[in-house]
Amino acid sequence: MKARLTAFFNRHLSKRKLLAVLPAWMKSSAIQQGLMFGSVSIISLVLMATVTFFYVEHELKDQNREIVKESQQLATGHHKEVDDDPIEDDEILAVLASGFVLAGVLVSIFTVALVIAMSRISQKRINRIEKVLNAAAEGDLSSRTQVKYTTSDLARISVSVDDMLSRLEGSVAAMSDISANIAHELKTPITRLRHNLLTLREDAERVEPNLEDTFIEELDKALEDSQRLASIFDALLRISQSPAHAEAALWHST
């Protein structure tokens, strides 16, 4: 029976279904805070009225017992004086004031506790989002907020951040694969070209010692360009291995 009830609630009254039925305007943090403030105000008034009622009723019962006691003493002749005002106005005002003060203290404690709880929940979500964004800035694109339901503005932001990081992680992975393929395909020809240029320069100096300086300068320039190309492809390989250092790798390669 318990298993059937659990299955029924999970199927018809699950958190996801309830959130799907919830209108969009109810998922706004401002609306939720306004409703919460209104609920707290109503609960506070009810609590204050209840506490005041029971406190005043308790005090009035004590006063009534005193009146009954004095009446019995008067009837038996033990008490000959009759108080024209058995319940003092000052006492009634003091009882009411004490009741309101007690109710106010309890309501204040309840309100402060509720506000602290709500603030901690919101701050916890903000801290989680900040932690995930800082991790992403440092290169860890696998970090997530782990929020599944869009119950409020912060929850929607958390879900959007997770979705953004998932797409970004896929794009970076694809870029890394492309960079690795390009680097592997072109690094070998560039290395061979540089080797041929070095061989040509050595042969030119050995066979023709009196070559024009312009030819040697052009060879040196070609060697520098080939070295720069090799550095760029090395940077592409480093990018494919560590996407977090992509910017630094490209900067040093240039």
TrEMBL record:
The enzyme's main class, written as a single word, is transferase
- Where does it mainly reside? membrane
Does Cell membrane show up as a keyword for this record?
Answer: yes
Keyword Nucleotide-binding annotated: yes
Membrane-crossing segments per the record: 35-56, 92-118
Q: What sequence ranges are listed for the domain HAMP?
A: 120-173
Per the record, the coiled-coil ranges are none
The reaction(s) this protein catalyses: ATP + protein L-histidine = ADP + protein N-phospho-L-histidine
Looking up Pfam families in the UniProt record yields: HAMP, HisKA
**In the record, what terms sit under GO molecular function?**
ATP binding; phosphorelay sensor kinase activity
Report keywords, A-Z. Answer: ATP-binding, Cell membrane, Kinase, Membrane, Nucleotide-binding, Phosphoprotein, Transferase, Transmembrane, Transmembrane helix, Two-component regulatory system
Gene3D superfamilies on file: 1.10.287.130, 6.10.340.10
**Could you name the Gene Ontology cellular component terms for this entry?**
plasma membrane
- Record's superkingdom? Bacteria
The EC number on file is 2.7.13.3
Where would you find this protein in the cell? Cell membrane
Query: Topology relative to the membrane, per the entry?
Result: Multi-pass membrane protein
* InterPro entries tied to this protein: HAMP_dom, HisK_dim/P_dom, HisK_dim/P_sf, HssS/ArlS-like
State the protein's name: histidine kinase
The opening ranks of the lineage are: Bacteria, Pseudomonadati, Pseudomonadota, Gammaproteobacteria, Vibrionales
What gene is this protein a product of?
Answer: cusS
